[in-house]
Amino acid sequence: MPSARLTGHLFTFITIAIWSVAFVGNKVLLAHLTPIEIMLYRFLLAWGLLLALYPQWRTVRSWRDEAYFFLLGFLGIFLYFLLENFALRFTQAGNVGLYMGAIPVLTALLAHFFIRGEHFSTALLLGFLIALAGMGLILFSELHFTLRLRGDLLALAGAATFALYSVALKKAPQDYHFLLIARKSFFYGILLMLLYLVLAHEPLHLPALKLPVVWLNLLFLGLFSSGLAFILWQQGIDRIGPVAAGNYIYLVPLLTALTGVIVLDEKITPAMLTGGALILLGLFVAQRRPIPDNQDVR
Q1: Which of 6, 132, 226, 278 has the most CB atoms lying inside 10 A of its own CB?
Q2: In the chain, what's the furthest Cα-to-Cα distance?
Q3: Does residue 293 form part of some domain?
Q4: 43: exposed, middle or buried (C-beta count within 10 Å: 0-12, 13-18, 19+)?
C-alpha cells in the first residue's frame, strides 16, 4: 500500500535523524562511563519503555522462535554496538563512520540471497558509490584517512553485523506483536551485556549516574535512540524492506554535521555542502528501483 510505504520511509528517516543526534550524547557519556556501561544502561531504559508500552506477557510458540529472538538481540543489540565501540578504540571516528556507509550495500547483498523480491541492482551500487563519496567529503574535510587495520576491520565487521540484523529483522517470526519482538531482543542483548561485564571484569561507575549530564544523556539514548528509534526502524523495515531502509544510513554524516551547526555553532563548509548534495543524490539513485506492489518480502 502506498500509505504504508510512505510511513515506512518517514519512520526510517526519523530513526536515522535520532541516531545522528545520538553520536553527540554518546561522546559526552564516554567521559564518564565505559562503552559497555553505556550500552547496558541505555538498553535497560529502552526495555523498561517497551514493557510500559506493551506490558502483556505471551508464551512463545516454539524454542525456534525464542532462538530467533536471541539471534536478533545478539546481532543488533549486543554484537553491533560492541564491535563499533571496539573499532573506535583502534581507529579514527571518521574511519568508523565511513565503514558504516557500507551497511546499505551489504544489506542489499544479503537481502538479494535471503529475501524473496529483493534484488541487488546497478542503481543500488551506483547510489552507494555516489553517497560514499559524499560521506567521505563530510567526514574527512578536516582529517586525513589513515588505514588502521584492526580498527577498520572491526568497523567493517560491525557494518556487516547490522546488515545481518536488518535482514534477520525482516524475517522475524510472524504473529507476534512488534513491541514484543523488540522487547525480547532487548532482553537477550542485556543478558549478553551482563555476561560480558562479568567475564571481562569491567568496572562500574555508579557514582557518575548522579551527574545530570550523565542521566539526561542516558535518558535520551535509552528512551529515544534505543527505545523509540529501534521500534521505528523495525516498522520501517516491515513496510519498505531492509534495503530501502538501509539506504537512509547514508544520511547519518550529513545530519550529524547539521546537528553540529545547530547545536555547537559549527560552520557550514563547502565540503559539507558538496558532500550533502552527493549523499542526497546517491540516496535518490539507490531508491530508484522498481518494486512490485504485490511482492512478498517475507
Answers
A1: 226
A2: 56
A3: no
A4: buried
